[in-house]
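Archive entry. Fields below.
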Amino acid sequence: MSLFASLNLARLALGAHQTAIQTVGQNIANANTEGYARQRVQMSPTPSDDMVFARVGTGVQIERIERIVDEHLEGNLRDARSGLGDLAERLRTFNLAEAVFNDLGGGGLSESLSQFFEALEDLSNNPEDPTARSELVVQSGTLVETLHFMDSGVRSLRSNVDDDIVSVVQNINRLTTEIAELNAKIVEAEDGGLNLGIANNLRSQRDAALGELSDHLEIKVIENSRGAVQVLSGNDALVVNSRQTELLLDPRSDGDISYHDVRLADNGQKLKPKGGRLAALLDGRDSVAVTLRTALDEIASGLLTEFNAIHVQGEGSKRYSEVQSLNAVTSPNVVLAEAGLPFAVENGRFDFQLVNEGDGTRETYTIAVDPQTMTLSDVAAAINAQVGSDHPEIVAGVTVDGLLEIESTSTSLTFTFREDDSNFLVAAGVGTFFSGTNARNIDLSQLVVDDPSLFASGAGGGIGDNTRVLEMLALRDAPVMGKSSMTFEEFYQATIGELGVQGAEARELHSNQEAIFLSVKNQREALSGVNVDEEAISLIQFQRAYQGAARFLNVVDGLLETLINSV
Amino acid sequence: MAVHASTFRVSEFSQTSGVLAQLRQNLSALSEKQQQISSGQLYQRPSDGPLAVRRLISWDRWIDRHEKYEANISLATSRLSAAESSLDDLHEMIGRARDLGLQQINASATEETRSNAAIEISSLIDEAVTVANRQFADRYLFAGSQVKTTPFERVGEYVAYQGDELASRVEIGVRTAFEDSVTGAHAFGGMSTEIVGAEDSQPAVTTGTRLSDLNGGRGVDVGAIEIRDGLGGVATIDLSRAKTVGDVIDFVNDSGFAIAGMNATSNGIVISKGGANLDVMNVNGNRTATDLGIAVLDAGPTVIGGDIDPIVRSTTTLAQLRGGAGVDQSGITIRNGDLSAEIDFTGLETIEDMLNAINTSGTGTRAEITGDGKTLSVRSVLAGADLVIEENGGTTGRDFGWIVASEDIPLDQLNRGLGVVNGEGADFRMTASDGTTIDVEMDGASTLGDVAELINQHPDSAGRVTAVVVAGENRLRLTDIAGGAGELVVAPINGAHTAAQLGIQGAATGGVIEGADLQPGGTRLVSAFDGFALLFRSLASGDVGEIGRAIRALDDAEDKILNVRAELGGGIRRLEISARRTELERLQMRELVSKEGDTDLAEAIVLFEQHQTIYQASLQTAATLVQPSLLDFLG
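PREDICTED_STRUCTURE:
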């Protein structure tokens, strides 16, 4: 053993401890880096020299710089994060939906409906009062606007969620690209698995990316023998080695609403995420928002069918001089059953009643309707044939837009409608009060808005006849919603109630999940997180050793000098 | 790489995360309390308390709704009270009229006193019309649904009713509509006389007859029927989508199992199948076959359905009436007081056409289908007038049943609808030529023919007196066959006017009493204005019997008004009870809403301060925890 060997020993010691201090510095520098796992230097003595009488140590070497990480814990943490992301988005969606459906402070649909019925009560008390009529038109307008407003709120919700989906998918693609690239770098740095686990910093980066990805999407991570990870969402692979499967945004539309489907680039199948933000967003958009819109549409439909069915068979303080249907057919020459009317027409008849305003006499004509064989033109022809032949002042026709038009060219002849067991009047929108087909396009008949005396309050009696209004009021307690099991009010409240229950549940689950996430994170950090105090102590340790090694070097240097000077 | 974790390591993250989480929680609780205080409400969103919020919204709606009902009850009460006070006034006037009338029956009455009384009655009528035309909040109280039309108008010596019979209703509770008005027709007899047609107009069934019109308007329970042909074949035919008789026939024919059609008398359905022994049955306890009149077992090859009794509609054609035999369309002549018109039915098609013709004839009459849908009635709205329907050269009146054979004329239509008095005990005494007295009791007689029969079947009449209703004329003829020396005499008993009213009072000439023409007219309905008008006329003519009858009419009208007034009184009481109960419930509900939904400010503020203290403590401890590390102490 020579002094030069000692020099070497010193050199090794200094080097090793320099590296150790460097590692401490790395840990401290990354104390707050997301996904970073602390690194620990594993030193071991270099092979000893065989001096016959003893084996003498030759120094120290860095065997490896170890990354303190438990893959199992990492996996748990990612799952907890997915769960949290999922519930956070769910909670946000319900909060947004509740903002649209909040009747607590007043001004919601419940109050609008209530005020609408109250206006009907006032009309019922004084059908002869024009003020009561205009008030009813005003309240009906408010009801319709409220429906529009809420429908538009739900649409915005849907559209906002869709925007979030787009942005999440873009993030996912960015992250999977990054992971794929890191895979390549890690495999290269670890020589294709020969030196598995030495690319610590690259691995930390990859873990950070995987963590962020798990927030967006629930993933399964499997590391292969070469150091690359496979990232799966369910059974679909998003990253395999250095290849990434991109997620595509496929624009679709549902009527007048546009949205995006999320598809895998390689096989075009729709992605079905199990957890994470994306899962909650897709569910929010496709399930929650749709349920809400359907509920609103059902309420609108109830008004359009049940309420109108009463209105078409009544008359106001005035009768019609001209009327145009509100629902167009696709073609006046197609049978009614296939003409695109929003509600079904049955085999039956409706009564067309002509009123002589001069002497008050009435003439009733029964017009038969067979949706399987008659077109809208046929209906107009029937009216002309039966009524027009006796009274040529009554003319019925079909406009180019597919609307039925009935007109009296004489001011002393007006008309109204009575019993209709075919539902034609409601389906075509003849003499109806509410027009449209759903919550978005429901509106009031312009004819009645312009002249509220046409609101069908009575059944042909005098100006104080409130027979029909009383029937409309009875609708309030009629089970016309929810497959004939609930009233309007009950149905709406059930919808809000369901929303409230789900929202409360989401809040509770989110709160629980936060606690779970925190707990798992703490566990992970307890193992892999940096404690600056600990690093400080390590720093002192390595510093001491470095100082010691330096001193040793000094001594050996002195020994050498002595030797050299004595020659 | 798996490395065992030491549970005692405290990472940088765990030091700060716990603190952050706690601070967030504190702040959130603080914020929640602040929201509750500033909004006064416990719940800001449905998810804050889904069950409670749902209840609260539902209660709020209940309160709104019942506030409206309270307002309606108040309105109804006011309307009824206004009507009540008018009825009181009219009641008082009837009293005055009666007194005037009674005075003129006295022996001390003279032509002059009667004529003065007549003038007084006339001005009383004007007063009564004013009362009956009272308004409340710009609505005529007694016009039915014609609230902007003056209900009663003086037309010469008559009073015309221009309202209708539709009382208005308001909602005073859930599904509770309450009549808050009395029509002039109901209270004062706006309709004063009526002539009702034959009991059943028997409209023929056609393929277009709606099922809902069958069975007297009861309709049909539409479901399925089962037909068995007795040869092993069974068919179940679903009729639930049938709306007309034609649909039923079509559905059966479409099945190909049997043939359906209309029966020969046009009032039922026929189902036949050659060589079969048909059974037609209801299915699953429904009433479809029964309601269609075809529920028959062992019928052989043909089931002849029973009468399915459709009601008359305005669209029923005249040709359909009387089982399809139709009616003569020469028309009728209507006389009503001073008004009269000949109405020709030639060229008219439907019942509606005919009703229109009558209603625009300017005779102060209203023709309509009766409430049970079986026949047609003609009523006069001219109080005091006598309503008569005569043929217009054909048999229309008889075909409709408005004009009946003399012997079938109801007694209460005789004497221009004033009828014949039927008192207690014997009503008149016939003394035959042989001196036998025959006391006739009118009980049980409802038509003129019944009276003749009563006379003929009296035990003492045999061989002494015979009575007949003179063919084609509205009078009786009594013939003495006793062959005695005297003359047949008919005289009143106990001053009853019956004999005079039957036109047979007095002595026979040549053994025969030719009764006077009994002037049949419409049945007089109970009507205050009719009573007044009759009294006026009778005072003017001086006929004591007529004055008596007018007073009786006024008595009936007074009873009617008292009844109606009692109804109103009952109604008002019921409204008061409703109002009190509704108010009480509403107040209780309001309290409940407040308890469940309003923030208890005292409690909330205390909690708020508590949270605030906790928050401050958290901040302080956080500051201490996030303290300098070892590095600060190393050189």
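CURATOR_NOTE: The CA atoms of residues 504 and 515 of chain B lie 5 Å apart.
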